[in-house]
């Protein structure tokens, strides 16, 4: 820019020399000296060109006298500027400009005001680690990676170790992977030493240009290294680094290779923690899943009952009144298969249902109505309806295998289910671990064995002082140091745990008992191995699907492999699938806690021999499900016959309460009041913007005033020369007055400035009629002034900047900082709102007619929304309820006696028929006919 200004000044000087030379040439022509003058003119032009070229060479060689070195330095400067601009697009999202401009970060890199590449998202500052439930183990591990190296560097310095620099989050959708990353970003933004947090989602780094994606990754790690300590979070990393194969695109392979080198290559990564999140762990390249890159892998599984209760407490802790602990426990028990996002949606849906139940009027009105928010109270029915509307994320594609016994079927199968739990504790003792026990607690107890007093010292004698007895015994008899085994005092041990629920078809072993057992073991991962799991994916062979299920089960131990209908499954699959299954089952380590649960709709003696070899009766691995006994059947029908069949018909009580109340229109909500710090910050930003506007307007006014064409408008009109000017022009204006108004901060927008320019033009046109030639020239220059000013504003003023100035002006008018002729409309609006308040709260002041008109408006709106009042019905006498209890008891005894040899599915069908009879006669006060039909 400076070079261009210098060139223009030289050219302008050249033009002035030529003009002066031409004028002298005209003088010399009169004395016949034109030839001599032409030679002088040519020589002057040549001298000017030589001086201009010398000036350019000086500017070009200002940094170096050597041409080659100058080109190299210019290339390096251009490269550094390009890198700086690229780094400014890869900035952390949890730090502000003032945070980056202070401390050591300012010395490492000079940054702008943008804190992200395209401002991808705004972090919710309220999300902290205490806002996350059921993931304490993951939070502790993240603290070891990020917080502890900052707080306790002496520990890592003592052992000369580096903390883990990478971790991978994987699990079903909605289990809190991204939520933990947000909480980590907020936790890193606290305290004196802040940690820069970079976030990239999926394919943010991908580009259509060859090599651009790799460059973006290098820039990201370069920027993170400059702002260390820092964290890079890759959300949906499977889209960025998929498994490399020969069938894959070469671009993705290059990106994966670049990411591998950046995470653990020849260059030291420094204090950079890389976190990846994915729903598909198998889609990530295996080279990433090793220490040095992703040191740890955290499984975000579906929360168990205790974790669900904790999540419910977090989402409802600000409710008033608070939900009881007993209700939250029961609700958590019902929400099997719900992830954290589902539980949050459940609370939201329950609140909306309560709103719909209390105020149905608001759904039919387009205006805001006055509501009593304290009258909106949730009940258990709201949560029940919300659970009916929500489909858990884990069940959208595949239904969950486990569910609790329903309240209807529980009395019938509770005895059989308790016997299954008793056998389960013998076969699979891991089920005895309480819900509060965690795997990390077990590992801690196992590690405590290393502190045994009788253990040999692992240190050298000169470095560690030990008892002479131990050292002598160690020297005499060599014992292995690493002889630790799984202690039965700390963790249960099971040998190939298996259980088969066998029985007649329809005994409930597959439909009720096995799902209820899986519901009890919900904290273990369940892998279903049935016919749909083998044949539903057409891209895989059944053998591949079977092997995949066993790999997942071995990776997530302790786990459960569930095989319903094993007899039918064995007959349907091919010989290769059977051989694959037996091989995979045999390859499982003997003491590995992988529980094989199966059900059979046939007797154990009728199963194939291979299946009998898997489940042995002598090891109590087979449980026969018997038919319900008399006591079970009596409990099953007792509630239906004795209680529900004798209930009175439902009545509409207090019909007057069913009428919808007419809600008045709500007043416009007042704007949010800014705090003092926010006001000061906002005023500073506004003043900075208006300062830029004033500088621009001064430059425009100076350009107009220095133009000789507009010299006549630069000063006020002399009243002594034009005595009648003020009689014609009521509001005089000139460019000097415009400058004064700029200095007095009278212009908040360019529109106000152009209004005064238009006023100058209109005054000139009004005072100078289109008659005299001199007046015509003035009129022409006035119109030119107007067009020139408008053209400069339109060409050089940024529209976004102009819009910002307009918003500042409106905001100041609302705050009452600007009062003038142009604010009458805003003041009238304020007076109108005040008048409306008087109409509502002080009808005696305004008048009854106005209040009636306002109420009439409300009634008309109520009619248009089809909310008609329901008149109260006259109360009718209630007929007496006729119920013969003795006949109902006899009917119950008859049902229990006749259903002696019925299976569970047949009892359920009988229960359904009786329920239909009760429903058809629910409005009868005389239950005699119901008893006859049921009998």
Automatic annotation (TrEMBL):
Biological processes, Gene Ontology terms: nucleosome assembly; nucleosome disassembly; transcription initiation-coupled chromatin remodeling
Signal peptide: none
InterPro entries cross-referenced by the UniProt entry: AAA+_ATPase (IPR003593), AAA_lid_3 (IPR041569), ATAD2-like (IPR045199), ATPase_AAA_core (IPR003959), ATPase_AAA_CS (IPR003960), Bromodomain (IPR001487), Bromodomain-like_sf (IPR036427), Bromodomain_CS (IPR018359)
All residue ranges annotated as the Bromo domain in the record: 705-768
Cellular localization per UniProt: Nucleus
Gene Ontology CC: one annotated term: nucleoplasm
One Pfam family this sequence matches: Bromodomain
Membrane spanning residue stretches: 827-848
Keywords: ATP-binding, Bromodomain, Coiled coil, Membrane, Nucleotide-binding, Nucleus, Phosphoprotein, Transmembrane, Transmembrane helix
SMART domains in UniProt: AAA, BROMO
GO molecular function: ATP binding; ATP hydrolysis activity; chromatin binding; histone binding
Region (Disordered): 62-83
Family (UniProt): Belongs to the AAA ATPase family.
UniProt-recorded name of the protein: ATPase family AAA domain containing 2B
Organism in which the protein naturally occurs: Equus asinus asinus
Lineage of the species this protein comes from: Eukaryota, Metazoa, Chordata, Craniata, Vertebrata
């Amino acid at each position: 820019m400076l070079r261009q200004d210098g060139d223009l000044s030289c050219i302008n000087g050249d033009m002035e020399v030529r003009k002066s030379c031409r004028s002298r040439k005209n003088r010399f022509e009169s004395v016949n000296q034109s030839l001599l003058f032409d030679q002088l003119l040519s020589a002057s032009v040549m001298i000017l060109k030589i001086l201009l070229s010398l000036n350019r060479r000086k500017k070009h060689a200002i940094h170096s006298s050597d041409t080659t070195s100058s080109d190299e330095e210019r290339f390096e400067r251009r490269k550094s500027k390009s890198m700086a601009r690229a780094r400014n697009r890869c900035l952390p999202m949890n730090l502000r400009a003032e945070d980056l401009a202070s401390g050591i970060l300012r010395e490492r890199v000079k940054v702008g005001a943008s804190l992200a590449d395209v401002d991808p998202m705004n972090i919710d500052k309220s999300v902290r680690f205490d806002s996350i439930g059921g993931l304490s183990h993951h939070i502790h591990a993240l603290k070891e990676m990020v917080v502890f190296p900052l707080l306790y560097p002496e520990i890592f310095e003592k052992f000369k170790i580096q903390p883990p620099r990478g971790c991978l989050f994987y699990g079903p959708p909605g289990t809190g992977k991204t939520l933990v990353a947000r909480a980590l970003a907020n936790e890193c933004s606290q305290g004196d030493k802040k940690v820069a947090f970079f976030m990239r989602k999926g394919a943010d780094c991908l580009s259509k240009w060859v090599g651009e994606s790799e460059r973006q990754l290098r820039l990201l790690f370069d920027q993170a290294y400059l702002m260390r300590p820092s964290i890079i979070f890759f959300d949906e990393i499977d889209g960025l680094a998929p498994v490399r194969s020969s069938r894959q695109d070469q671009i993705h392979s290059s990106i994966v290779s670049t990411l591998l080198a950046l995470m653990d290559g020849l260059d030291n990564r420094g204090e950079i923690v890389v976190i990846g999140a994915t729903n598909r762990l198998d889609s990530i390249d295996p080279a990433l899943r090793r220490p040095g890159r992703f040191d740890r892998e955290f499984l975000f599984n579906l929360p168990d009952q205790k974790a669900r209760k904790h999540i419910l407490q977090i989402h409802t802790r600000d409710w008033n009144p608070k939900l009881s602990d007993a209700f939250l426990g029961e609700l958590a028990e019902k929400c099997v298969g719900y992830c954290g996002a589902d539980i949050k949606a459940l609370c939201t849906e329950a609140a909306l249902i309560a709103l719909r139940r209390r105020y149905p009027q608001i759904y039919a009105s387009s205006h805001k109505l006055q509501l009593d928010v304290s009258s909106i109270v949730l009940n258990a029915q709201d949560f029940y309806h919300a659970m009916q509307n929500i489909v858990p994320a884990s069940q959208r594609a595949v239904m969950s295998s486990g569910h609790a016994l329903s309240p209807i079927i529980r009395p019938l199968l509770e005895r059989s289910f308790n016997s299954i739990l008793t056998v389960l504790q013998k076969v699979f003792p891991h089920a005895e671990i309480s819900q509060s026990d965690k795997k990390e607690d077990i590992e801690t107890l196992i590690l405590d064995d290393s502190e045994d007093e009788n253990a040999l010292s692992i240190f050298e004698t000169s470095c560690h002082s030990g008892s002479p007895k131990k050292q002598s015994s160690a020297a005499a008899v060599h014992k292995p140091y690493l002889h630790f085994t799984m202690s039965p005092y700390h963790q249960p041990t099971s040998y190939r745990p298996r259980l088969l629920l066998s029985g007649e078809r329809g005994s409930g072993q597959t439909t009720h008992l096995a799902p209820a057992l899986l519901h009890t073991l919900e904290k273990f991962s369940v892998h279903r191995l049935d016919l749909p799991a083998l044949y539903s994916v057409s891209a895989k062979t059944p053998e591949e699907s079977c092997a995949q299920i066993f790999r997942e089960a071995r990776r997530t131990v302790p786990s459960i492999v569930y095989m319903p209908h094993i007899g039918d499954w064995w007959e349907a699959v091919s010989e290769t699938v059977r051989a694959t299954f037996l091989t995979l089952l045999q390859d499982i380590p003997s003491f590995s806690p992988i529980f094989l649960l199966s059900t059979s709709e046939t007797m154990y003696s009728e199963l194939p021999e291979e299946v009998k070899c898997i489940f042995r009766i002598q090891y109590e691995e087979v449980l026969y499900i018997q038919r319900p006994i008399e006591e079970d059947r009596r409990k099953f029908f007792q509630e239906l016959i004795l209680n529900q069949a004798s209930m009175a018909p439902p009545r509409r009580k207090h019909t007057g309460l069913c009428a919808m109340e007419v809600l008045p229109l709500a007043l416009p909500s007042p704007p949010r009041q800014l705090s003092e710090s926010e006001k000061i910050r906002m005023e500073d930003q506004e003043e900075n913007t208006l300062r830029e506007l004033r500088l621009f307007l001064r430059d425009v006014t100076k350009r107009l005033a220095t133009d000789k064409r507009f010299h006549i408008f630069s000063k006020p009109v002399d009243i002594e020369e034009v005595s009648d000017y003020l009689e014609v022009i009521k509001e005089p204006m000139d460019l000097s007055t415009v400058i004064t108004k700029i200095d007095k901060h009278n212009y908040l927008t360019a529109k106000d400035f152009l209004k005064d320019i238009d006023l100058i033009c209109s005054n000139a046109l009004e005072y100078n009629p289109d008659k005299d030639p001199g007046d015509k020239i003035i009129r022409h220059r006035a119109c030119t002034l107007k067009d020139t000013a408008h053209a400069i504003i339109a060409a050089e003023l940024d529209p976004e900047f102009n819009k910002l100035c307009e918003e500042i002006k409106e905001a100041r008018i609302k705050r009452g900082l600007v009062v003038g002729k142009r604010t009458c409309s805003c003041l009238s609006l304020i007076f109108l709102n005040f008048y409306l308040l008087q109409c509502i709260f002080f009808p005696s002041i305004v008048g009854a007619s106005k209040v009636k008109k306002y109420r009439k408006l409300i009634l008309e709106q109520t009619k248009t929304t089809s909310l008609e009042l329901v008149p109260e019905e006259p109360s009718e006498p209630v007929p007496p309820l006729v119920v013969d209890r003795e006949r109902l008891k006899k009917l119950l005894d008859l049902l229990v006696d006749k259903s002696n040899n019925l299976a569970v599915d047949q009892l359920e069908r009988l229960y359904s028929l009786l329920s239909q009879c009760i429903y058809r006669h629910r409005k009868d006060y005389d239950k005699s006919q119901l008893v006859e039909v049921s009998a």
